[in-house]
């Protein structure tokens, strides 16, 4: 494999070596291998396809489990918010001057809702005027 040296440094180790092109190495390796028949090639191809199908099936099952888990957690989160909203106490503030007197944290907690929206969230029904 080593043909001629391009140069020799002081250490005595060769710096660069002439190398063969990769395609010639590839053909040398292939010459020693036995040829495959058409049936062997088709059998290998079928095995690879089966493995890919099985892998795809496993991925689909995994993604389905993830999707169900995600939906369940979203539903649980919505129910928790709804229950928290129902269990909290409410107070109607008619005078806006009181809002200005409140400190910043309290003002951030206050939320304003129209009466029909409030009734819908509390009772799950719409109100007709």
UniProtKB/TrEMBL annotation:
Subcellular location: Chromosome; Nucleus, Nucleolus
Main subcellular localisation: nucleus
Protein function: Involved in nucleolar integrity and required for processing of the pre-rRNA for the 60S ribosome subunit. Required for proper chromosome segregation during mitosis and error-free mitotic progression.
GO BP terms in the entry: rRNA processing
UniProt cross-references to InterPro entries, sorted A to Z: CCDC86, Cgr1-like
A cellular-component GO term for this protein: nucleolus
Record carries keyword Disulfide bond: no
Residue stretches spanning the membrane: none
Disordered: region residues: 1-33, 55-89
Protein name in the entry: Coiled-coil domain-containing protein 86
Pfam families, alphabetized: Cgr1
Keyword Coiled coil listed: yes
Record field: compositional bias (Basic and acidic residues): 55-64, 71-84
Family per similarity comment: Belongs to the CGR1 family.
UniProt KW keywords: Chromosome, Citrullination, Coiled coil, Nucleus, Phosphoprotein, Ribosome biogenesis, rRNA processing
